[in-house]
Specification:
Layout lengths: L1 H43 L7 E6 L5 E4 H6 L3 E10 L5 E10 H8 L8 E6 L8 E2 H6 L4 E7 L2 E2 L10 E4 L16 E6 L1
Parallel strand pairs: 1-10
Antiparallel strand pairs: 1-2, 3-4, 4-7, 5-6, 5-10, 7-8, 7-9
């Protein structure tokens, strides 16, 4: 009987040590991942200066576009109605103003001949689904980098952003909200 008490005691002490080691590993991994994510968010967070959108990836050269450039240097769509449907089947529409993405790619001449698609990347690390260039080329005014919704600047600050990547529902058979992104800081080209 004394021997079985020892075995139980040994088992409990080994189990407690194992649980403690597992706890330390989980906490360490959590802290490490938190620090990593904070560094990524900091990398994409505006420092109070004018917001900038970076185009990178499978490109001839990286491009950085300020909000001022976005509003003045590229073809604009003003107060155009965009339709949305999410994965729950909810539908709605809003009017957006912004720069036509296809015009940005053309004027900047940054795409490689083998570039086929892109996605929006947001400051909160969200990324949209990939969007084919062939769809955008055929329907250029249906994909925007928008700076106003329903006549109001995104975030309420006309010169500070944020910017949204907007895609009209008519480009996709399924829901289109997975192709859009709020707080866009980059466009990754593939």
């Amino acid at each position: 009987m004394n021997n079985s008490k020892h075995r139980i005691k040994d088992f409990l002490s080994k189990r407690n040590i194992s649980i403690f080691i597992l706890f330390v590993i989980i906490i360490g991994a959590s802290i490490g991942l938190t620090i990593y994510n904070l560094q990524l968010v900091e990398k994409y967070t505006n420092d109070g200066s004018e917001i900038t959108i970076k185009i990178y990836g499978n490109v001839k050269r990286e491009v950085n576009i300020t909000l001022t450039q976005l509003k003045s240097d590229y073809q604009q769509v003003i107060n155009q109605k965009f339709y949305f449907i999410n994965d729950f089947g909810s539908t709605w529409s809003d009017n957006y103003s912004g720069a036509v993405i296809w015009d940005i790619f053309n004027k900047e001449d940054c795409l490689n001949p083998n570039s086929t698609r892109f996605r929006f990347e947001a400051s909160d690390l969200y990324t949209s689904r990939n969007i084919l260039f062939s769809l955008v080329e055929q329907n250029p005014e249906l994909v925007l980098l928008a700076y106003e919704r329903n006549g109001i600047a995104m975030g309420g600050e006309p010169d500070k952003g944020p910017i949204e990547g907007i895609v009209n529902r008519s480009l996709f058979l399924d829901w289109n909200t997975i192709y859009t992104a709020k707080h866009v800081v980059a466009i990754r080209v593939y």
